[in-house]
Amino acid sequence: MAEALKEKELKSGGIYTSRRSFFTIAGWGIFLMTLLAYAWETLGPKGFFFPKVLFEPSPVFPVGTPSDFAENTVTTLKSRKVFIVRDGNSFKVISVVCQHLGCAVHWTKEKNIFECPCHGSKYYRNGVNFAGPAPRPLYHFQLSLSDDGKLITDTRKIVPIETELTI
Amino acid sequence: MNLISDIIKKITDNEIWKSVFRHGYADTPRNRALQTISNVWLHIHPVKIPEHATKIRFTWCLGGITFFIFFFETVTGILLMFYYVPDVNRAYADMIDLMYAVPFGRFLRNSHRWAGHAMVITVCFHMLRVFLTGSYKAPRQFNWLLGVMLLVLTLLLSFTGYLLPWDQLGYWAITVGTNMGGATPFIGYQGPFAELLGVKINSDIRFALLGGTQIDAPALLRAYVWHCIAIPIIAGGLMILHFWRIRKDGGISGPL
To answer: Which member of B172, B203, B212 has the closest CB to residue A54?
Structure first.
């Protein structure tokens, strides 16, 4: 019966699939598609391992008013991982994160440089690397003055190292 | 020694004993083989052992030692889980409690830590031995591949365990390690070709490992789950395959 049907279908140029192989293919297909969907949901770029809501500090935050910082000083804002560098009336916000492997560099006042405790990278006061394995200068973040006179930094926006906010 | 055999005879050579146990154990080669085949604990052991397998100085039992350490880590790790909570406000204090307040806690934690270091070392020596004796050659190529996967999993176990004390050492080690992940080509936001896939700081491999853009509570929890549940299960599955393939690939390797 099935053989005759197969013969007839193939002769007229059609396709023939037995019920058994149809269900085999359909079963495996559904199984693999489900598996793939689960894999995509967990491991995919918008999946389970990539949370949409983060309980982290906002990347935009006020660092203080200009008068909070004395002239020609480097202030460390440890909780926010930034330095506020004031030279005259110019302000800069420099990241504490070392460009080598992400340790926190610290300001060494006596030598007038930033130093990384992990692998010995050193940076000048303007954030430019000059020793150790660091491949590039420290990040400088965008700084602006809000209407109520606060210095606001946005750590999502990285600006060229020459950028300063002069008040 | 007649005394002991006399006592055994007295216990076993009577009607009550025989009515319960029916017959004794005849120590024949066939019975020895059956013991191994039919026993769930012994069935992983080969029934026949080639003479070269008894010469310890070919394999140095490095794979066996590694497996023993893995087992030891499982037991001590489960015990540590009774006191340790992977919460950023508690983790460090729990670790200190284990060191100073919990009975035998310091011994347990130090055992776990040192055995972890030892496992990395024995895995490396095992690999070196297999390489030097050419035991990776046909038909054992696939078992070498499984071994490489197990090496990676061992290193990942070591890495994820590092963060759990939530101390300065672990924190910065994980900072450095995950930043290396962030520099992976294509899937790391600081790596080459990241722009091609549009991978950013909140969509790259580092983000998936940390559960955020910085090392915080989600990173600690993720390290904990990977360390205590996920990686041991994956490694256990691969170990079953690894040991089974030793037998199927012609038994334990020996001198040609």
So the answer is: B212
Residue ranges of alpha helices (H) inside A1-123 are: 2-11, 19-43
**Position A13 confidence tier, pLDDT thresholds 50, 70, 90:** confident
**pLDDT tens for residues B174-190?**
999 999 999 999 999 98
pLDDT in tens, A58-80: 999 999 999 999 999 999 999 89
Question: Would you call B213 and A50 a contact, using CB atoms and an 8 Å cutoff?
Answer: no
Is B27 part of a structural domain of the chain? no
Answer yes or no: do B172 and A118 touch at CB < 8 A. Answer: yes
Q: Which CATH architecture has domain A60-166?
A: 3-layer Sandwich (2.102)
Residue at token pair 């919460």: B87
CATH number at residue B116: 1.20.810.10
Predicted TM-score (pTM) of the model is 0.83
Task: Flag whether the ipTM exceeds 0.85.
Answer: no
Range of the domain at B159: 60-134+141-248
Using CB atoms, pick whichever of A50, A56, A101 lies closest to residue B176: A101
Q: Please indicate if any CB of chain B lies within 8 Å of the CB of A50.
A: yes
Interface of A with B in 127-146 (CB under 8 A): none
Reported for B147-150, long-range contacts at CB under 8 A and 24+ positions apart, including other chains, are B147/B242, B149/B238, B150/B123, B150/B235, B150/B238, B150/B239, B150/B242
